[in-house]
């Protein structure tokens, strides 16, 4: 039995190393003080016939609201005493406690049991001097050629031509949807819309009716929208369109010359553009190789430090992942969601073990992050976001500062692991 100021606490294992049973006793004096506080609060906020507000006698208050006040006292004292035990005993709960076996009677100590899962305490071992492949991050010429060609394609322009539209062209159109009587529907008119006839997502009716048209042509046709179409208003429906062709556009890809390098990429000439692309690709290759090294080290460290995880940690991780995907627009049935949770459970377990071990190594190696380092990281992030005032305020919040601290500590841990690793040369 240990004491937490005025409390008596007995902490017991409860089925696993991270699941604890806290048997807590609150002295009757503390209970009575809480009761008097609640009585006074009730006096100040209730109004009874025949009494001025704030002047109702205590015995009347207790007689009238005794049950409600006891509930308020119990809730307040349990919450306060549990939080005090967690703080004083330096516990790290990962779930809300389950409160049971409450023995509550005025004039006597309050006792109750709190079942809680704690963050697993990890003592890492065998994490230095591990073998890891050191990849030579050379970028082949053909990869540079491919990147430059992708840049040319992204910089392609649609230029006007005086001919009929082909499958690889685009048409500039004005269009409007029609109602059942063939009259234009309000707020459906679009002017100067560029329709790429070879675009993968273009519905076949548009492609079929617009190929072969030229400036000045007019087309009326119907479009059957699929049941999974993005626009809910048109999903699964057939809509009629009236389309006027304003012109035909041909896709022109510019040659990779000095003029292209200056106008598109801001480089002095094509040689400088090629050198810059190679430099960027080599940087990406180094970063990719570094991440692969780190994950290979993580796999070895997890294997050398086996551990079981609290179910609540895995469940919470998967729930956060599901909610994040929902925010991004993912829709699924309950069966699909359950299947997703099952398929991603091994990934969730690995990620949790990874984070626990990285934190434990940071503690074991006395890794620290200074306020100046956090400030520089946040300043860089704000500049990367364009630094509008609201973004800068958000990035400087306590939550973002803690995220920055954790990220910087993790980078320092991985730098240490790579520095101490035994590198085996291999060509990427």
TrEMBL record:
<dbReference type="GO" id="GO:0005737">
    <property type="term" value="C:cytoplasm"/>
</dbReference>
<dbReference type="InterPro" id="IPR001179">
    <property type="entry name" value="PPIase_FKBP_dom"/>
</dbReference>
<dbReference type="InterPro" id="IPR037041">
    <property type="entry name" value="Trigger_fac_C_sf"/>
</dbReference>
<feature type="domain" description="Trigger factor ribosome-binding bacterial">
    <location>
        <begin position="16"/>
        <end position="151"/>
    </location>
</feature>
<comment type="function">
    <text>Involved in protein export. Acts as a chaperone by maintaining the newly synthesized protein in an open conformation. Functions as a peptidyl-prolyl cis-trans isomerase.</text>
</comment>
<keyword id="KW-0131">Cell cycle</keyword>
<comment type="similarity">
    <text>Belongs to the FKBP-type PPIase family. Tig subfamily.</text>
</comment>
<keyword id="KW-0143">Chaperone</keyword>
<dbReference type="GO" id="GO:0043335">
    <property type="term" value="P:protein unfolding"/>
</dbReference>
<dbReference type="InterPro" id="IPR005215">
    <property type="entry name" value="Trig_fac"/>
</dbReference>
<dbReference type="GO" id="GO:0051083">
    <property type="term" value="P:'de novo' cotranslational protein folding"/>
</dbReference>
<dbReference type="GO" id="GO:0043022">
    <property type="term" value="F:ribosome binding"/>
</dbReference>
<keyword id="KW-0963">Cytoplasm</keyword>
<feature type="domain" description="Trigger factor C-terminal">
    <location>
        <begin position="271"/>
        <end position="417"/>
    </location>
</feature>
<keyword id="KW-0413">Isomerase</keyword>
<dbReference type="InterPro" id="IPR046357">
    <property type="entry name" value="PPIase_dom_sf"/>
</dbReference>
<dbReference type="InterPro" id="IPR036611">
    <property type="entry name" value="Trigger_fac_ribosome-bd_sf"/>
</dbReference>
<dbReference type="Pfam" id="PF05698">
    <property type="entry name" value="Trigger_C"/>
</dbReference>
<dbReference type="GO" id="GO:0044183">
    <property type="term" value="F:protein folding chaperone"/>
</dbReference>
<keyword id="KW-0132">Cell division</keyword>
<dbReference type="Pfam" id="PF05697">
    <property type="entry name" value="Trigger_N"/>
</dbReference>
<dbReference type="GO" id="GO:0051301">
    <property type="term" value="P:cell division"/>
</dbReference>
<protein>
    <recommendedName>
        <fullName>Trigger factor</fullName>
        <ecNumber>5.2.1.8</ecNumber>
    </recommendedName>
</protein>
<keyword id="KW-0697">Rotamase</keyword>
<dbReference type="InterPro" id="IPR008880">
    <property type="entry name" value="Trigger_fac_C"/>
</dbReference>
<dbReference type="InterPro" id="IPR008881">
    <property type="entry name" value="Trigger_fac_ribosome-bd_bac"/>
</dbReference>
<dbReference type="GO" id="GO:0015031">
    <property type="term" value="P:protein transport"/>
</dbReference>
<dbReference type="Pfam" id="PF00254">
    <property type="entry name" value="FKBP_C"/>
</dbReference>
<dbReference type="GO" id="GO:0003755">
    <property type="term" value="F:peptidyl-prolyl cis-trans isomerase activity"/>
</dbReference>
<feature type="domain" description="PPIase FKBP-type">
    <location>
        <begin position="163"/>
        <end position="244"/>
    </location>
</feature>
<dbReference type="InterPro" id="IPR027304">
    <property type="entry name" value="Trigger_fact/SurA_dom_sf"/>
</dbReference>
């Amino acid at each position: 039995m240990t004491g937490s100021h005025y409390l008596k606490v007995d902490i017991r294992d409860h089925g696993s190393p991270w699941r604890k049973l806290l048997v807590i006793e609150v002295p009757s004096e503390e209970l009575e003080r809480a009761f008097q506080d609640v009585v006074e609060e009730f006096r100040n906020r209730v109004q009874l016939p025949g009494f001025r507000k704030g002047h109702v006698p205590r015995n009347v208050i207790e007689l009238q609201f005794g049950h409600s006040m006891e509930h308020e006292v119990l809730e307040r004292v349990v919450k306060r005493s549990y939080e005090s035990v967690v703080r004083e005993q330096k516990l790290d709960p990962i779930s809300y406690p389950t409160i049971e076996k409450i023995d509550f009677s005025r004039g006597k100590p309050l006792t109750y049991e709190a079942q809680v899962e704690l963050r697993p305490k990890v003592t890492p071992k065998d994490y230095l001097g591990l073998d890891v492949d050191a990849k030579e991050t050379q970028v082949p010429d053909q990869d540079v050629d491919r990147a430059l060609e992708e840049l040319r394609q992204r910089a392609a322009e649609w230029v006007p031509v005086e001919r009929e539209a082909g499958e690889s062209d685009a048409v500039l159109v004005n269009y409007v949807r029609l109602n059942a009587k063939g009259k234009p529907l309000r707020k459906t008119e679009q002017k100067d819309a560029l329709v790429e006839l070879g675009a993968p997502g273009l519905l076949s009716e548009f492609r079929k009716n617009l190929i072969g048209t030229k400036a000045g042509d007019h087309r009326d046709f119907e479009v059957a929208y699929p049941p999974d179409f993005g626009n809910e208003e048109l999903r699964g429906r057939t809509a009629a369109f009236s389309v006027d062709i304003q012109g035909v556009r041909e896709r022109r890809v510019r040659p990779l010359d000095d003029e292209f390098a200056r106008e598109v990429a801001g480089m002095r000439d094509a040689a400088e553009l090629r050198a810059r692309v190679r430099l960027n690709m080599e940087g990406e290759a180094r970063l990719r190789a570094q991440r692969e090294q780190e994950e290979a080290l993580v796999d070895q460290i997890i294997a050398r430090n086996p551990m079981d995880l609290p179910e609540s940690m895995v469940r919470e991780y998967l729930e956060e992942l599901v909610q994040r995907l929902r925010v991004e627009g993912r829709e699924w049935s309950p069966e699909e969601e359950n299947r997703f949770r099952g398929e991603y459970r091994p990934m969730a377990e690995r990620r949790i073990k990874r984070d626990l071990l990285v934190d434990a190594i940071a503690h074991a190696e006395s890794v620290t992050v200074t306020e100046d380092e956090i400030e520089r990281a946040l300043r860089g992030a704000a500049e990367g976001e364009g630094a509008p005032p609201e973004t800068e305020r958000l990035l400087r919040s306590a939550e973002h500062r803690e995220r920055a601290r954790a990220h910087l500590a993790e980078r320092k841990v991985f730098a240490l692991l790579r520095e101490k690793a035994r590198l085996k040369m291999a060509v990427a």
